[in-house]
Amino acid sequence: MSEGIRKGLVGVVVDETAISKVDPESNSLLYRGYPVQELAATQPFEAVAHLLWHGELPSADELAELRAEERRHRVLADEVKAVIDLLPTSAHPMDEVRTAVSALGARVLGGVSAVDAGGTREENLARAIRLFAALPAVVAYGQRRRRGLEAIPPRDDLDYAANLLWMTFGEEFDPVVVDAFNRSMILYAEHSFNASTFTARVVTSTLSDLYSAVTAAIGALKGPLHGGANEAVLDIFEEIGDASRVPAWLDEALAAKRKIMGFGHRVYKRGDSRVPTMRKALETLAEHYDRPDVLELYTTLEDEFVSRKGIYPNLDYPSGPAYSLIGFDTLTFTPLFVAARVTGWTAHIMEQAASNALIRPLSAYVGPDERHVEGYVPDETDR
Ligand code: SDX
């Protein structure tokens, strides 16, 4: 490989950010300076969204104002629902969510020219809040329509986490479950220059609009090496069945050189800082739903894989079984990641837009030496 190339940008620092700090040495994650564990244990997700966008936790008035604005945009617009309904229910939910965001953007931006679509910080903050508010309805409707059920309208008397559960299941959940779900959304919200966030920053760096950047980020997050892993973790749990089958399953998977979804991380090498918090939430849910078998399988697979390969779980590993216990379909897991990460993505979009620097790396050419067309005669033989 040519000199100086860092494939996959491994270890390359490409820009500064004030939004979050991922530190593999201390195995920590700070959102605007606050340890994510403290935020997950004490804050509603709406307050963390405010922190990511504005750099500070909200005052009581600011939180009330954000909650009021979020409530104003919860309803899934008929036109967006109609676009989703054009897709077959067999479409992957990430394609559904990506399409819905694109349709939302086309409606909000209307005829705004590409030159002006980038928007001001105020316009992008309003767009960020609208997406933050609208995505739960998109995610909930996706799961319901795949089950042949009608959409459930939002409830103004429920905060963000409880309302997303209400729109998906049509029931009010025990506060223990709402709290565990709220914690998962905070843990998923932001993680510096991960592939989907960096994708959003690249799109923004051309002065394109927020909806195009989020649509591109959803495309990146869908990949099983990134957000799609939480869905794949449940597939693995279903493949294994029960804890007693873990050793044999792992023998086979590792012999086939399979990537074990939910394990490993590009930045953390001794474990993902978010996992202990999400694991506690999973333990709470397993107790609440009386499902010790889920924890047994979770722990057995982790212990076996870590002892054999020294590769540790990432956030997707505990969040998959947690979402399954709550009742979300496996295919809904990564859309939930979108609903959470849209706060981090839009914070980075606003930060990138302010920096005004086009992202355009170089490449080392390894193709044919220069040659000329006059030497080319299309011959009859197939190439
Ligand atoms: C997320 O970047 C972020 O912050 C992402 C994220 C976020 O919040 O945005 O944290 C969310 O994307 C978490 C990751 C979810 N993906 C998965 O769980 C998929 C499985 N994980 C692997 O594909 C892998 O660990 C990656 C992609 C996550 C990390 O990839 P790297 O950095 O390219 O892998 P590596 O250099 O750490 O791997 C070193 C070795 C390799 O073996 P060799 O080829 O050198 O023999 O470890 C192996 C890898 O094959 N390895 C695995 C493995 N992870 C690494 N082998 C089997 N199963 C795995 N999960």
UniProtKB/TrEMBL annotation:
GO CC, one annotated term: cytosol
InterPro entries: 2-MeCitrate/Citrate_synth_II, Citrate_synth-like_lrg_a-sub, Citrate_synth-like_sm_a-sub, Citrate_synthase, Citrate_synthase_AS, Citrate_synthase_bac-typ, Citrate_synthase_sf
Presence of keyword Transferase: yes
UniProt keyword list: Acyltransferase, Transferase, Tricarboxylic acid cycle
Enzymatic reactions: oxaloacetate + acetyl-CoA + H2O = citrate + CoA + H(+)
GO molecular function (one): citrate synthase activity
Domain of life: Bacteria
Pathway it works in: Carbohydrate metabolism; tricarboxylic acid cycle
Active-site annotation: 265, 316
Example GO biological process: carbohydrate metabolic process
Magnesium found in the keyword field: no
Pfam families, per the entry: Citrate_synt
Protein family membership: Belongs to the citrate synthase family.
Listed name of the protein: Citrate synthase
Organism whose genome encodes this protein: Microbacterium oryzae
